[in-house]
TrEMBL record:
Domain Response regulatory per the UniProt entry, residue ranges: 3-119
Organism of derivation: Stenotrophomonas koreensis
Gene3D superfamilies in alphabetical order: 3.40.50.2300, Winged helix-like DNA-binding domain superfamily/Winged helix DNA-binding domain
Name recorded for this polypeptide: Transcriptional regulator
UniProt keywords, alphabetically: DNA-binding, Phosphoprotein
Domain HTH luxR-type as annotated: residue spans: 133-198
GO biological process, one term: regulation of DNA-templated transcription
InterPro entries with a match to the protein in the record: CheY-like_superfamily, Sig_transdc_resp-reg_C-effctor, Sig_transdc_resp-reg_receiver, Tscrpt_reg_LuxR_C, WalR-like, WH-like_DNA-bd_sf
Length: 200
């Protein structure tokens, strides 16, 4: 049996995925949860073979869960199932060691087949996204991403400096770099564009 934890913040989608996967004779849904923190607790509790997760969720995102699993060297493999068909997200997912990246509009049988492939040690990526991911490079560094994400959440430069243990001037420099690299006129536009591209 392939033992999975399912993390999806939309309850109707979560229920549908759990029901569909539950029909597969070799897949067992151990727990279906609605946010990243609950997903992490379920992973610690069950030590599943696979985590099937969305990217954007309250608490921890799917990417943050994948990064934490990799850092702690857990055997759980990660498959992302999302509406976000963005090359930037896919690149970051691959860097985090994700085994599969599928879009929610994929047929149900494709998801089950993907889970079997990832469980066997393979990789499964939506083919159109795979092409886009290698043609559109993310210009931001990890620290620039952190600073820009917090700016987009409405934090001031001072707040960001306190949160990340940086000086006020360093935060301003990071934001200036983001604005320059993305060829926009202010931090709001930089955040919007980076989100649209999947770089945050």
């Amino acid at each position: 049996m392939i033992r999975i934890v399912l993390a999806e913040d939309q309850s109707m989608v979560r229920g549908a995925l759990a029901a569909l996967l539950g029909l597969e004779p070799d897949i067992e849904v151990l727990e279906a949860v609605g946010d990243g923190e609950a997903a992490w607790r379920a992973i610690e509790r069950h030590r599943p073979d696979l985590l099937v997760t969305d990217i954007e969720m309250p608490g921890l995102t799917g990417l943050e869960l994948a990064q934490r699993i990799a850092r702690q060297e857990l055997a759980t493999r990660v498959v992302i199932v999302t509406t976000f068909g963005r090359a930037g997200y896919l690149r970051r997912a691959m860097e985090a060691g994700v085994g599969g990246y599928l879009l929610k509009d994929a047929p149900a049988e494709q998801l089950a087949a993907a889970l079997r492939t990832v469980q066997a040690g393979g990789k499964v990526v939506d083919p159109q996204l795979a092409v886009a991911a290698w043609t559109e490079l993310d210009p931001l560094s990890e620290r620039e991403r952190q600073v820009l994400r917090l700016a987009g959440e409405g934090l001031t430069s001072g707040d960001i400096a306190s949160r990340l243990g940086l000086s006020h001037g360093t935060v301003r420099n990071y934001l200036s770099e983001c604005i320059s690299k993305l060829a926009v006129s202010n931090r709001v536009e930089a955040y919007r564009l980076a989100r649209q591209k999947g770089w945050l």
